[in-house]
Specification:
241 residues; alpha/beta; Rossmann fold; six-stranded parallel sheet; two-stranded antiparallel ribbon; globular; phosphatase activity; metal-binding; PHOP2 phosphatase; Pase_PHOSPHO-typ; metal ion binding
């Protein structure tokens, strides 16, 4: 009897967007208009690539970025929640599926000593090249029309579950915790015994309630959270059952 916890990262584990937070490293803590306006929907990773070039061109170093990243606040209650999950790892497998990047997530989790809580992190691969500039690649290629070009979280979840099943691991329940529009695809994949936990007031919650209004509700249960205390209360009930 094991539960799978799937976490988004930005605005879920941390209370900010790591990609927009990095702008604090830019001259005057802002990006030029031309760069800011160059974003095209569904092409966030390419946009961030241009942001990292701009930061590199302006002398922003790896250490500067790391310092900025490790000042991002965790969502209210999240530190306690991750501590609780860490103490109960025999009951929970725990993964992150995020549109951030490996470098940012690694820095943040290691600085707070939470990297051991998570079994796997699925996110865009990033490295500092020989020039010292950060480069980010798309996580994978996919055919899903609903998701951004670089990452279909539904595909990631399905492949992870298939891989686990081949190793003889199946889950009593999947709990999906997220906030954004790109979290809807994996939520649609959940079954009736699973639970989606959208963050209150964010896009995922709005999209799930829109589906219910359109009479095509998601199959899983839905429990809205506003702080990680709500998530912890639910997990405590789950392991008591």
């Amino acid at each position: 009897m094991k539960f799978l916890l799937v976490f988004d990262f930005d605005h879920t584990i941390i209370d900010e967007n790591s990609d927009t937070w990095i702008v604090k490293c830019a001259p005057e803590k802002k990006l030029p208009n031309g760069l800011r306006n160059s974003y095209r929907p569904g092409h966030w990773t390419e946009y961030m690539g241009r942001v990292f070039v701009y930061l590199g061109d302006n002398g922003v170093k790896e250490d500067d970025m790391k310092r900025a990243m490790t000042t991002i606040p965790f969502t209210v209650g999240m530190v306690d929640l991750l501590g609780f999950i860490g103490d109960n790892k025999q009951l929970f497998d725990c993964i992150i599926v995020s549109d951030s990047n490996t470098v940012f997530i690694d820095w943040i989790l290691k600085a707070a000593d939470f990297h051991k809580v998570f079994d796997e992190v699925f996110t865009n691969p990033a490295t500092f090249g020989s020039t010292g500039y950060l480069t980010v690649q798309n996580f994978h290629a996919h055919q899903c029309a609903k998701c951004p070009k670089n990452l279909c979280k539904g595909k990631v979840l399905k492949e992870f579950l298939d891989k686990q099943l081949k190793q003889g691991v199946s889950y009593t329940q999947i709990v999906y915790i997220g906030d954004g529009g790109n979290d809807l695809c994996p939520v649609m994949y959940l079954k009736k015994d699973d639970i989606a936990m959208p963050r209150q007031g964010y896009t995922l919650e709005k999209k799930i309630s829109q589906l219910a209004q359109d009479l095509s509700p998601v199959e899983c249960s839905v429990l809205v959270w506003s702080s990680a205390v709500d998530i912890m209360s639910y997990l405590k009930l789950l392991i008591k059952e």
